């Protein structure tokens, strides 16, 4: 009998039954001990090409972008991060930070460790939203957001009335991720999206092969924002083994930068909705884990739920088109 108790005790001990909180300032997200095995396999360092953004990525935060996002509601046709005047709507490297003017590269976060501090004004619900987004990265990837304690490079999460925006990758020193309240902290996917930029990812529809998957309807694009639909240069991009992903939290919505409430982008295959902001998709998770060379990844992925036929003949087709668990390409 006592061996049963010993076994049970060992089970709880080894299975990481309780969550270990990180030390720190109260912004922390619990990490189950099991996650600690999910360490980086390799240094996870490297550069990120941002050349297709050109000079557009460099600028200053604007109040006008904030006014647009202030008008955003959950019933708006587009996502709030598609309302800014920044490169592709929400990519901004504040000017004084761009060392030597325009750089065509930024960096990954060494070891997948991202020091962060929340300095914006958020209510409890909004702070929880940010925490839940960070918890998703901890659960599904080997990235670790750790409380800022004087590290050289870190993220500060702000809430200024300048819209939703972030730099792409690590630019060095203090870098802002702005989540205007309430527009940018209403949906978890918007928080995940801006953090994915800071982690090092671009928009899904700027992939070089996107014209095989979506139609861009230039007639409906607001004049002056056509640049936001530019594609990356094939030779400078890395798809991290994940094929084009309609479910990506990094995909524009169908009405992004519309001048007339008509679609600006639509999938070539019917039945998909673009621009979900519920959670990371399986492709998003896999890309992060491949960029940062994580050994394993979590399951229970929200971004694909309700969008992905998982059973029956349709599910079979889905799996073969968009990949179940195999790495494509
Ligand atoms: C933007 O708004 C802030 C706060 O309302 C104000 O202090 C600042 O001067 C404005 N900036 C510009 C460029 O108008
Ligand atoms: C925000 O909405 C108000 C009222 O609906 C409108 O007058 C204003 O032009 C809008 N601002 C922007 C920047 O879209
Ligand atoms: Zn974005």
Short description:
The protein is α/β, with parallel strands linked by helices. The protein is 22% helix and 12% strand.
**Percentage of residues in strands:** 5-15%
Sheet of most strands: 5 strands, mixed
Which strand order do you get reading across the main beta sheet?
6-5-7-9-8
Measured between the Cα atoms of the first and last residue, the distance is 53 Å
Mean pLDDT: 83
Classified in CATH, the superfamily is Collagenase (Catalytic Domain)
**Annotation field: number of helices:** 6
The second-level CATH architecture is 3-Layer(aba) Sandwich
Question: Percent helix among the residues?
Answer: 10-25%
- Computed over alpha carbons, the radius of gyration is 20 Å
Q: What ions, cofactors and ligands are bound? A: 2-acetamido-2-deoxy-beta-D-glucopyranose, zinc ion
Please describe what this structure looks like:
The active site is at residue 194. Zn(2+) binds at residues 193, 197, 203. There is one protein chain. The protein is an alpha/beta fold and 329 residues long. The chain has a single domain (18-322), classed as Collagenase (Catalytic Domain) (3-Layer(aba) Sandwich), CATH 3.40.390.10. Helices cover 22% and strands 12% of the residues. It has helices at residues 2-15, 63-70, 124-140, 188-199, 282-291, 312-322; strands spanning 47-49, 58-59, 93-94, 105-107, 113-118, 144-147, 154-158, 164-166, 174-179, 214-216, 265-267. The strands form four sheets. It has a five-stranded mixed β-sheet, sandwiched between helices. A two-stranded antiparallel ribbon has the order 1-4. Strands 2-3 form a two-stranded parallel ribbon. Helix 3 (124-140) links the parallel strand 5 and strand 6 (144-147). Helix 3 crosses helix 4. The protein is globular and about 50 Å long. The termini are far apart. Residues 8-28, 30-44, 309-313 and 323-329 have low confidence and may be disordered. Residues 81, 90, 193, 197, 203 line the site of zinc ion (ZN).
